[in-house]
Specification:
It is built from 16 helices and 33 strands. It has 687 residues and is of the alpha+beta class. The strands form seven sheets. Strands 6, 8, 9, 11, 12 and 16 form a six-stranded antiparallel β-sheet that branches. A six-stranded mixed β-sheet has the order 10-7-15-14-13-17, with no helix packed on it. A hairpin with a 2-residue loop joins strand 20 and strand 21. 48% of the residues are buried.
């Protein structure tokens, strides 16, 4: 939600343009004062720019930018006051866009002054000088029908134009329109600075920076990998655009989409369905044919779609008050999980007070039988009826916004996992008098346990594997019969052999790993231990095996790295390209994991890699591998418990803990199959 450039005493346009503390009389203005009145006071105060010490304190290296733009901003502020005053008595799309443009530019200038390094890191060093041109030479902004654009806004490089959905603009506040303009200005800046479009949705990331929004680590990773490109046909020209989406979702690499019906505070009894989007545009977005086709797909209960919540026959999983009492009837709904091909695009359809079957039978129905969609383009007047509370918590408004809705967005609340996508922030659409977000039940939505949303490259496909948290004793006696091996010893079958891994205690408390194999007829094949793997002073164990179809990996643990490197795993790790994979690191005592490539025919050890966590003093701390999968590129995806700080790709610790969870932390590492290089890392709750 956009922070007003006029009501905050610090971190605002006032500091960026006036470059000094906000005067007491302005900082203390009540929220009830209308923005044009506040804007006029700012205009009266703008001449006080000659404050060298304070200017340097506030803006430092961005001073040239501010000095060059201050006169223009002075003029633009005047235009803004006039534009918003005009808008107060007018609902024209052009007036709203003009007022929103001014507000967006002011917030961008403020961010450029106070967070220049963050803008440069996101878009490049050349972005800062371009920012001032937004105040001097505004971009072309063109309103177009929402049915053509299929988004709130989009930027086209070919025409250097920002397109806004005119029906949507007509029903939105200036602040909401400005938020979309900021995102599209981010796309424009990236286009001008970088020869190749930055991977991910850089416009959305730019908007979160400018608007001061806090987003989770997982949400940031999704935006960094999300494809925001689309094709837009307008006036006979096919344009490639980057856009602000409207409730479209994409199945992630897990191929499993799960939906939970959490709260029901709406008096209606309707149904919520999902439907696949391929080919839907051909039916005319929002038309009767479109509605009937969406209903048909939902009723098929196939990969084309299904009904996921039936408020007609089932209740929500929780009973609470979100501004209104619980309206749920019937037995609490179960979690609906659908196996869907990764990359499938889908949307939601809500029948407010009826069934999907009724809509299919009569797609021209009105009133509470007119379906409402997560895609605003398919709704009357392009209105938003799906809103987002957190990363995976969504709410629905079941009364048409164009027909006097109460806009309480509490009618159906659900969680979504296994798909990426965005909806409008609930704070921008909920009616102030109906805001239930601060109520106890509202706050509970922010505490729902969310499955960590890994970026696509860290979502792996299962392989043949078996792991234990604590190693099990396994003899290295060649005469041991297979039937005498404890059932708790990890084992897998590879290339006609059953392979086991564990530990032995050759002397006192010292432990060494053991791997042994038997042929499918039960006869002994081979056994390896001690000098084959690790026989130094630190304890070494074997806790797991994984077979990818082409490569066998063993997972060992060690609790130190002192002594002769020829007696431990370091002798096979020296060729690693990523330096922290080569050794245990500093200190000793904490148990860390070691991955090793094993020849399934002989047990011979190939390349090894150490996986460790790190303490604040730089010493190594414990890390325990819990699973291994492979991703679409063939790399290993290793899941582990990291005790204290997990490592980044470089080996340095993650810097910011943004979770209240305590150690151990769920940690994921992507490695090349030869175990020589770390490709990426992810730690839930850390940045």
């Amino acid at each position: 939600m956009m922070t007003s450039a006029w009501t905050s005493a610090e971190g605002t346009l006032l500091e960026a343009v006036i470059v000094g503390p906000v005067p007491g009389d302005l900082a203390s203005l009540p929220d009830s004062v209308q923005r044009p009145a506040v804007g006029q006071q700012v205009l009266d105060w703008l001449p006080n720019l000659d404050r060298p010490d304070e200017i340097d304190h506030w803006v430092g290296p961005t001073l040239p930018l501010l000095r060059s733009t201050a006169p223009v901003v002075d003029d633009n502020l005047t235009q803004f006051v006039e534009a918003e005053t005009a808008t107060a008595g007018s609902s024209t799309v052009s007036d709203r866009i003009a007022a929103a443009w001014q507000l967006a530019v002011q917030d961008i200038l403020a961010t450029a002054a106070q967070q220049p390094d963050e803008i440069a890191a996101l878009l490049g060093d050349d972005a800062l000088p371009l920012v001032q041109t937004l105040a001097i030479h505004p971009l072309n902004v063109e309103p177009v029908p929402i049915a053509a654009l299929m988004a709130k806004g989009a930027y086209a490089q070919a025409t250097e134009t920002i397109y806004l959905a005119e029906e949507w603009v007509a029903g939105q506040s200036v602040e909401t329109i400005a938020a979309v303009l900021i995102e599209e200005m981010g796309h424009w800046l990236d286009d001008r600075v970088n020869a190749v479009d930055t991977v991910g949705d850089e416009g959305a990331l730019f908007a979160t920076l400018v608007q001061g929004q806090r987003i989770s680590v997982a949400e940031r990773l999704i935006l960094q990998t999300e494809d925001d490109g689309a094709v837009f046909v307008w006036q006979g020209q096919t344009l490639v655009v980057e856009q602000s989406g409207l409730g479209e979702f994409t199945v992630d690499a897990s191929g499993q989409v799960s939906i939970n019906f959490v709260f029901d505070n709406g008096a209606y009894a309707g149904e919520l369905a999902v439907f696949e989007l391929t080919g839907m545009d051909a039916f005319g977005v929002g038309s009767a044919a479109y509605i009937q086709e969406a209903a048909r797909r939902a009723l098929s209960n196939t990969d084309e779609g299904s009904v996921v919540i039936s408020d007609v026959t089932e209740g929500a999983q929780r009973s609470g008050n979100l501004g209104e009492p619980n309206q749920g009837l019937g037995v609490a709904a179960v979690t609906r999980t659908r196996a869907w091909t990764a990359g499938t695009r889908f949307a939601f359809m809500l029948v407010p007070n009826g069934t999907v079957q009724t809509v299919f039978n009569n797609p021209n129905g009105g009133g509470s039988l007119r379906p409402l969609f997560s895609l605003a383009a398919a709704n009357p007047s392009g209105a938003d009826h799906l809103a987002q509370v957190t990363q995976n918590v969504f709410t629905l408004e079941d009364l048409r916004v164009d027909q006097g809705s109460d806009r309480d967005f509490n009618d159906i609340v659900f969680t979504l996992q296994g798909a990426t996508g965005q909806a409008v922030d609930i704070r921008t659409v909920i009616a102030p008098e109906a805001d239930w977000l601060t109520t106890p039940d509202g706050q509970s939505l922010f505490n729902l346990v969310e499955t960590p949303k890994l970026p696509p490259n860290l979502v792996g496909t299962a392989v043949t594997a078996d792991f234990v948290r604590n190693s099990v004793t396994l003899s290295d006696d060649p005469g041991l019969a297979e039937g005498d091996i404890p059932a708790t010893v990890p084992r897998i079958e590879v290339n006609g052999k059953r392979i086991y891994i564990g530990e032995k205690n050759p002397s006192g408390n010292n432990k060494n790993p053991v791997i042994r194999a038997y042929n499918t007829d039960g006869s002994f094949a081979w056994v390896r231990s001690d000098a084959d793997y690790e026989d130094g002073e630190p304890d070494g164990t074997g806790i797991g095996l994984a077979w990818t179809g082409t490569q066998l990996y063993a997972v060992f643990t060690v609790d130190g790295g002192d002594g002769d490197l020829n007696q431990d795993f370091r002798r096979n790790a020296g060729s690693a390209e990523t330096s922290w994979l080569r050794s245990y690191g500093s200190g000793g005592g904490p148990k860390v994991s070691v991955l090793g490539i094993i020849n399934p025919d002989t047990g011979e050890l190939g390349q090894t890699a150490f996986l460790t966590a790190i303490l604040s003093n730089g010493n190594t701390n414990s890390l325990l591998v819990t699973n291994i999968t492979t991703n679409a590129t063939g790399n290993l995806v290793v899941t582990a418990d990291s005790f204290f700080t997990p490592r980044q790709v470089s080996g340095q610790p993650f810097q910011n803990k943004v979770t209240t969870d305590s150690s151990p932390f769920t940690y994921t590492v992507e490695l090349t199959p030869d175990l020589k290089r770390v490709v990426s890392t992810f730690a839930d709750g850390w940045t």
